[in-house]
């Protein structure tokens, strides 16, 4: 019997990016807004259950929690689906940067 490897979702919530929900607000309510998650990456996630890392590289802050759900919102101009990321149990941890794609997202295989 093989066990499916579950990936970790990393999302970036910088403090000072116009039109984006900042790190502190996501930490407070557990909802990251409007992230493009490619289908190939989404299929690696366990929903609910995957670990989520919330980063603010400009502030050198990091929090971790558990993915509760991904709610599709709008289709971006590039044709990709945007999602609101609902996270349970976000707790701030020691800062460690992660490599992100141009959408401010990474899916890291465990």
What is the gyration radius calculated from CA atoms?
Answer: 13 Å
Taking strands numbered 1, 2, ... along the chain, how are they ordered across the largest sheet?
2-5-4-3-1-6
- Total of helices: 2
Instruction: Please give the alpha-carbon distance between the first and last residues.
Output: 18 Å
Report on the biggest sheet.
Answer: 6 strands, mixed
Helix and strand composition category:
mainly beta
Strand content: 35-45%
Q: Tell me the series of helices and strands, N- to C-terminal.
A: EHEHEEEE
Oligomerization state of this entry? single chain
Walk me through the structure:
It is built from two helices and six strands; from the N terminus they run βαβαββββ. It has helices at residues 23-29, 39-42; strands spanning 8-12, 31-36, 51-56, 61-75, 81-93, 105-108. It starts with 7 loop residues before the first strand and ends with a strand. The model has no long low-confidence stretch (mean pLDDT 93).
């Amino acid at each position: 019997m093989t066990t499916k490897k579950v990936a970790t979702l990393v999302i970036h919530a910088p403090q000072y990016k116009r039109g984006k929900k900042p790190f502190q607000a996501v930490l407070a309510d557990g909802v990251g807004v409007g992230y493009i998650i490619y289908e190939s990456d989404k299929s690696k996630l366990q929903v609910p259950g995957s670990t989520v890392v919330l980063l603010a590289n400009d502030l050198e802050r990091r929090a971790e929690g558990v993915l509760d759900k991904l709610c599709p919102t709008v289709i971006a101009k590039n044709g990709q689906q945007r999602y609101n990321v609902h996270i349970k149990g976000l707790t701030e941890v020691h800062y460690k940067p992660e490599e992100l794609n141009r959408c401010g997202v990474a899916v890291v295989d465990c």
